[in-house]
Amino acid sequence: MTAAVFFGCTCIAFGPALALYVFTIASDPLRIIFLIAGAFFWLVSLLLSSLIWFVAVTISSTKNESVQRGLLIFGVLCSVIIQEVFRFAYYRLLKKANKGLMTISQEETAPISIRQLAYVSGLGFGIMSGVFSLVNILSDSLGPGIVGIHGDPPQFFLASGISRGVSLNSFPELYFPLIFSVSRPFFWSLFILSTCWLFLWFFYFPLYQFT
Amino acid sequence: MITFMNSDSEEEVCNERTSLMSTESPPARSYHEGICTEERDKEIQEKRRGSPCHHGDADQCTPDSRGSTRSSSLEEEEEEEELTLKYGAKHVIMLFVPVTLCMVVVVATIKSVRFYTEKNGQLIYTPFTEDTPSIGQRLLNSVLNTLIMISVIVVMTIFLVVLYKYRCYKFIHGWLILSSLMLLFLFTYIYLGEVLKTYNVAMDYPTLFLVIWNFGAVGMICIHWKGPLVLQQAYLIMISALMALVFIKYLPEWSAWVILGAISVYDLVAVLCPKGPLRMLVETAQERNEPIFPALIYSSAMVWTVGMAKVDSPTKGALPKDQEQEDDWSDTSGDHSYSETYDSPRCTPLHVPSYAVEELEEEEERGVKLGLGDFIFYSVLVGKAAATASGDWNTTLACFVAILIGLCLTLLLLAVFKKALPALPISITFGLIFYFSTDNLVRPFMDTLASHQLYI
């Protein structure tokens, strides 16, 4: 594949996120720190969920295709649940930190509002998850080879880029603010959003059954 | 088989970099710069106002003076906290950027230039080979390699501290100049040669000589004498990256990981224990009111403003010694002004009202300091992850994020404790945890997901 494919897919996948970063976050150091902290928390959640998946796979230790697939889906569900838990935990941590910052500083306004925090943390989560999913594929696209030579669909890269970048990358930061701004009906919004997330997965799975 | 040549200078480079560098050593002039200045102001003002009390003449102290001292110190504390928070995030980013740049340079080189991932021999500090038949033997060899390396570093650090204590400045400066000469000329020549080979670019010797001569000469001037701050920072980042690449090439795999773990433990011990060599170095430098050598520390201090010139004039006479020393500094002018204003209240009480104002101005110009050894070992960790993680970018990214978060936490602790702290332990621990777990647990998971086009 060529550099054109690489740059094209990278821009499709990361263009919106990069634009959001450059125009809103790059100017304020505090936001950059919270962005990286959000990425870190996502990473920890991924670590835990892959630990669970790995343990499940080594315990089952069969070469059966459908069992492996079932375990994979179980791993994905676990990962989604753990991510939500970590989002909640991060929210609590940030709330405490914000309170601490407010009490220490004598200024009237907090250095960063809870909505900005929600936006930045969600973006951090989203960027990290997007990068983790795509960067290996992208680096492979720079190397030699032809996609689809063994009968696999040749639109692998484009599909990956579009699906990952546009829909899923922006999802976290869309509903993260929703969680934070509605702190009283917090549990309702969490419930609604978790169902949206799970619904998305059930929507995707049948599609991928046929590929 | 190439064992590393120039072992003496290599030793020097190896040790005086890692030894000193591992601290956030700003004795009185860096980030704590932001904080220490105000504490010292507090102390100075309290001393001045409350000095009759402190000398045991408690009866002579009026309650008023005590009260005023307390309220003024409270105000200063509040001011201090505000400024801390306001500039805390900026200082963290001022360190994120160079650390990121260094890591990017190292990872880009590792991924593109094949030379640095080829096994071409080992350093004399890691004499035991890892090509052994059994795993136990390999583990034993790597532990022995680590012991030798760490003991060499400890010996050289103690030697440096002893030299510093007995004021053998010329020897230390000569040592530093020799090691930076080697880095700037020899290692750059090797690096440039390998990069040109990788991209198949032809370059004749006269051009090469010109390029390397200019690069090296300007680097020596910027690092050891005066130069624009950005250029000095760029050179320090480049030599840290070169040093890290040398380590990545010549340290065998398992030894590298064990050495990383051991050196963060050593860093912790050396900086925090009362008899630790690095702590003694920092305290001696603080007592003597001297800056630590410019070639060993990355400083992010911003450019000085003209406004400070006013404070300089009355104290010029009082501090000739400091002036001479400041000439050695290349543009870390934060120290310059700080050491002068430190003494001004004692000499000229009239300056006290304006002192608070100038203090604020000074605050804006403060930077943070990080030792070059920290840069080197962070880059070694990320570079090794890039080199040996079976071609996986996820591991590299995970280690990168882990190191940045560790640095952030270290700076947070620095703001809380307000004294020199080791920058290696937290970051390296996070980095190691993330490397091993990402390589062994996350990678199979993500690969399986990617092949099924499932995304999390």
UniProtKB/TrEMBL annotation, chain A:
Its main location: membrane. GO terms for biological process: amyloid-beta formation; Notch receptor processing; Notch signaling pathway; protein processing. This is Gamma-secretase subunit APH-1. It comes from the Eukaryota. InterPro entries: Aph-1 (IPR009294). GO terms for molecular function: endopeptidase activator activity; protein-macromolecule adaptor activity. GO terms for cellular component: endoplasmic reticulum; gamma-secretase complex; transport vesicle. It is found in: Membrane. The chain crosses the membrane at residues 29-59, 71-90, 117-138, 186-205. Pfam families: Aph-1 (PF06105). Keywords: Membrane, Notch signaling pathway, Transmembrane, Transmembrane helix. Component of the gamma-secretase complex. Potential subunit of the gamma-secretase complex, an endoprotease complex that catalyzes the intramembrane cleavage of integral proteins such as Notch receptors. Belongs to the APH-1 family. It is a multi-pass membrane protein. PANTHER family: GAMMA-SECRETASE SUBUNIT APH-1 (PTHR12889). Coiled coil: none annotated. The keyword Transmembrane helix applies.
From TrEMBL, chain B:
One of its GO terms (cellular component) is endoplasmic reticulum membrane. GO terms for molecular function: aspartic endopeptidase activity, intramembrane cleaving. Residues 16-25, 62-72 have a biased composition (Polar residues). Residues 30-58 have a biased composition (Basic and acidic residues). Its EC number is 3.4.23.-. The chain crosses the membrane at residues 92-110, 143-164, 171-193, 205-223, 230-248, 254-273, 397-417, 423-442. GO terms for biological process: amyloid precursor protein catabolic process; intracellular signal transduction; Notch signaling pathway; protein processing. Its main location: endoplasmic reticulum. Coiled coil: none annotated. Gene3D superfamilies: Presenilin. Residues 1-80, 315-345 are annotated as: Disordered. It is found in: Endoplasmic reticulum membrane; Golgi apparatus membrane. It is a multi-pass membrane protein. Keywords: Endoplasmic reticulum, Golgi apparatus, Hydrolase, Membrane, Notch signaling pathway, Protease, Transmembrane, Transmembrane helix. Probable subunit of the gamma-secretase complex, an endoprotease complex that catalyzes the intramembrane cleavage of integral membrane proteins such as Notch receptors. Belongs to the peptidase A22A family. Homodimer. The PAL motif is required for normal active site conformation. PANTHER family: PRESENILIN, PRESENILIN-2. This is Presenilin. It comes from Monodelphis domestica (Gray short-tailed opossum).
